């Protein structure tokens, strides 16, 4: 099994970063404006990237200001069954975000492209938390 791992450091309190990763407002500014999100274990978050299908993640772990884990139920075929976790830690008002997208069946070109896009997700999260302006899918030109 393969996994994508990314890390970023955000000059923002951990509470703000956690809220950005669990709320419609935050994820709407960071990832895609078309979504249904609720910070509740068992809830199935839905994300629409204008690709003809919804990406659905079930929330399987939610520890305030510490951990968020999603399990992919529907999306691109290579994502189904994978999990995404966000581990958060704070020191001196800087929040560390460790993102892991794991349980990939194999390392493919799509896997590599997703690794790049998860890095862009973390950049968008950083700009949103630090400057109140993220880069959701609908505003990206990269």
The count of domains is 1
**Helix percentage range:** 25-40%
Unreliable spans are none
CATH-assigned fold name = Alpha-D-Glucose-1,6-Bisphosphate, Chain A, domain 4
CATH architecture heading: 2-Layer Sandwich
What is the topology, as strand order, of the major beta sheet? Answer: 1-7-6-5-4-3-2
Quick one: CATH class?
Alpha Beta
Q: Strand fraction band? A: 35-45%
Beta strands, count? 7
* Number of alpha- plus pi-helical segments: 3
Order of helices and strands: EHHEEEEEEH
Instruction: Report the average pLDDT across residues.
Output: 97
Largest sheet: 7 strands, antiparallel
**What is the overall silhouette?**
globular
Helix/sheet category:
alpha+beta
| The CATH H-level homologous superfamily | START domain
Indicate the radius of gyration in whole angstroms.
14 Å
Ends distance: 29 Å
Protein name: ATPase
Family: Belongs to the AHA1 family.
Domain Activator of Hsp90 ATPase homologue 1/2-like C-terminal: 12-129
Pfam family, one: AHSA1
Q: Your description of this structure?
A:
The protein is built from 3 helices and 7 strands, in the order βααββββββα. It has one domain (2-139): Alpha-D-Glucose-1,6-Bisphosphate, Chain A, domain 4 (2-Layer Sandwich), CATH 3.30.530.20. It has helices spanning 14-22, 24-30, 109-131; strands at residues 2-10, 34-36, 44-48, 54-63, 67-74, 83-91, 94-104. Helix 1 crosses helix 3 (109-131). The protein is 27% helix and 39% strand. By secondary structure, it is an alpha+beta fold. The chain has a 7-stranded antiparallel sheet, covered by helices on one side. The radius of gyration is 14 Å and the shape is globular. Strand 3 (44-48) and strand 4 form a beta hairpin.
């Amino acid at each position: 099994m393969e996994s994508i791992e990314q890390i970023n450091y955000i000059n923002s309190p951990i509470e703000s970063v956690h809220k950005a990763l669990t709320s419609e407002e935050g994820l709407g500014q960071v990832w895609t404006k078309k979504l249904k999100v609720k910070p509740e274990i068992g809830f199935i978050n839905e994300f629409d990237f204008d690709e003809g299908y919804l990406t659905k993640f079930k929330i399987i772990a939610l520890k305030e200001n510490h951990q968020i884990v999603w399990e992919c139920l529907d999306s691109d075929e290579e994502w189904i069954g994978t999990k995404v976790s966000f581990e958060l830690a704070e020191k001196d008002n800087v929040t560390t975000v460790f993102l892991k997208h794991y349980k990939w069946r194999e390392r493919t070109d799509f896997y590599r492209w997703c690794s790049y896009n998860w890095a862009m997700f973390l950049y968008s999260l950083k700009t949103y938390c630090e400057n109140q302006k993220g880069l959701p899918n609908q505003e990206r030109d990269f």
